[in-house]
Structure formats: structure tokens, C-alpha cells
Amino acid sequence: MPSVFNSLPGLEVPVGEIKPRLARMWADPDVSPTLEDRESARAMQLNFVLHFGFATQPDDAVEQFTTIKAFSQRYPCRVVVLCPLPPENDATEMRAKIYGECFLGKSKGDTRCVEFVILSYPMGTRHYLENQVSICLSTDLPTYYWAHRFSDSARLADYHFLLGNAKRIVFDTGIAPFGAMSYPWPQPEAMRDLVHARLLPARQSLGQFLSGFTPDQLVGGLRAVKLYHKDQYASEANVLADWFRVRLEKCGMPRGCQTLVLKSVAKGIDDFAVEFCYGGDRYFKWRADIAANHAEFMADLGQGKVELTTAMHLLEPAAALSEAIFF
Questions:
Q1: CA distance 305 to 139
Q2: Which helix (H) or strand (E) holds 259?
Q3: pTM given for the model
Q4: Please, what is the Cα angle at 248 between 170 and 320, to 5 degrees?
Q5: Class of domain 200-310
Q6: Nearest to 140 by CA among 47, 219, 217
Q7: Which helix (H) or strand (E) holds 169?
Q8: What is the DSSP letter of 327?
Q9: DSSP code at position 230
Q10: Distance from the first to the final alpha carbon of the chain
Q11: What is the pLDDT of residues 111-142, one digit of tens each?
Q12: Domain ranges of the chain
């Protein structure tokens, strides 16, 4: 099986020649005939560090690489991809690749480009890594950091330069270690969860519907909030449960009211389902079939029955990355 580093595209170059080789990559006159055109094509908006954990498989790495490329069509960037080698690997030196790609927009002047520097490093060279990364980044641009499939928060916390200098730090709590979002990171306010970002359409749809009721109607007599989910949406259900809990507490949710996340055994459109449990005849129910882009609301909170059918999807990876980083 190829390594993560070998599975990613790019031209292998000596580590000490990364910057001049990047400049030479854009110097092809067939691509950009003039210096002005070349500089315009390479205009970057941000730095991005994608850090793979030991659990990352080659196919997974290629998928995230593709996500960054899609992201860069809207936000041109310099990307540094870090591929650590497991301790048992006998390599002793860093290896590097460079890769660049441009995307044409609606007009000749609308060109978006991405530059990749891909670094493979054995753990024996770990103490040189921050130095090398800082050389690869554009010093006048903000840096964003995405840690993917790491298995140990304490080990990741050793990367002080990246965690302390990034404007945003992105995890996917569906595949991160338990408690990653509550770990004492250097900048906890910079943490963002890709699961929460993917749920933006669901949060917007639910929030819009529930805003039609007063806080007293929502929490009066509320005994429990139940979220049902299929196996593949367990992380989304947990994050959505926290979202409901925080907002219902602000509405005055009664003490003792539980938020329960339960595995769904129902068939049909119950990829996700939410139920507010009250005493008497009052109820709120929502269920969704993500593959079919379909959701249903059903409620009676004392003003008569309300039913609504609407679209429901999760954000695509590049859009979720944008949401996590900028909002």
C-alpha cells in the first residue's frame, strides 16, 4: 500500500529548494506570458495547514486533498500538507513535494490558484518541523489549521507553533479523540468543529421553524428532547443535541429535562429524527432523510397543528470547511 505522501500528487523536490521550485513552477510562459499575469494568478488570500494523523489512509488523504482544492476555487491559498511517519518507520529525513493548480472563472481575469507544499517527516525530525512550515507559509497572510484523524490530543498539543498561531483550528469530532473540543488547547476560542459546520442547513431550518413559537411555548412542560439517528449520523446527532440543549436552556428549559441521543431503528426517512416530549397532547417532531434531501416538521404547541415539508441536506466538504473557518 502506498504511503500518504506517495499517494498525493506533486513533484518531489529537495526540502531546501521548496521556495525557488514553487516560483519556477509558475514561470512557464505558456501558462502566464507576463510577470504581471503570473503574480495576479498566484494572488493568495490565506495559508492553510492540513495535518494528517497516523490513522489517515492514502485514499482518505486524497479525498481531503481534493476538498482543499475545491475550497481554493473560492479562497486561493498556500497549503502545507503534513504527513507524519509512524515511529516504527526507519526514515531519517524529510521529503517534500510541490503542486499547483489554477481554476478559470467566468472571465479571463477571474483566476483562482492553489499552491501545495507536501512534507513527509519522520518523528526524529519533529523538532525541525515548525521551522520548515514557517518558511513555507506566506508571512503576511492569516493561517488556518486543520488536524485530520489524529488519535491523541496530548500528542497534537505538542505542535505549539501551529496551535498558537492559527486564526482557526478545525477538527471533525466524528473522527477526533473523545473530548477534543474540550481539551485545554492554547486557543480554545479558535476551535471549530466540521460536524457542527456540516449541520448548518439543519440548524437554519430547525431554528426558522421553532422561531415561530414563543420560548414559553417551547419549554413549558418540556420533559425530554430525544434525537434519533442512523449509525452513520451519530456524530451529527450528538452535536445537534448540544445545539438544542444550549438554545432551550436560554429559553428557560426546566431543570431535569433530559436531552437523549438514541440509535434509530425506524425505517423510511428517519436518518435523523427529533422529538420534544411534553405532558398532554402537545408535541414537536422533525425527521429527515438526508440522501433524499427531504425533511418533515409536525407540531402542536397549543395553537393547533402545524405540518411542513422542506429540503434538508448536509453541507458538502468544501462548503463545510468554509463555514468552520470563516463563521
A1: 58
A2: strand 258-263
A3: 0.91
A4: 25
A5: alpha beta
A6: 47
A7: strand 168-171
A8: -
A9: -
A10: 38
A11: 788 999 999 999 999 989 999 999 999 889 99
A12: 4-193, 200-310
Q: What is the DSSP string of 54-103?
A: TT--HHHHHHHHHHHHHHHTTS-EEEEEEEEPPTT----S-EEEEEEEEE
Which segments of the chain does DSSP mark as H helices, in order? 4-7, 18-25, 35-41, 58-72, 129-136, 153-156, 160-165, 194-198, 200-210, 215-219, 234-250, 317-326
Provide φ and ψ at 277, rounded to 5°: -105, 120
Q: Would you state the torsion angle of the CA atoms of residues 10, 95, 24, 43, taken in this order, to the nearest 10 degrees?
A: 70
Joined grid coordinates for residue 291? 440522501
- Across 163-180, b (16+ Cβ under 10 Å) vs e yields bebbebbbbbbbbbbeeb
Number of C-beta neighbours around residue 128 at 10 A: 12
Mean pLDDT across the stretch 93-111? 85
Answer for the pair 83, 118: CB distance below 8 angstroms, yes or no: yes
Q: pLDDT digits over 53-95, tens only?
A: 999 999 999 999 999 999 999 999 999 999 999 988 888 899 9
In 264-309, which ranges are continuous DSSP H helix? none
18-25 and 129-136 helices, crossing angle to 10° = 30
CA distances (Å), origin 325, targets 16, 305, 322: 31, 39, 5
Residue 164 near residue 145, CB atoms below 8 Å = no
* Closest residue by Cα to residue 77 from 129, 142, 21: 142
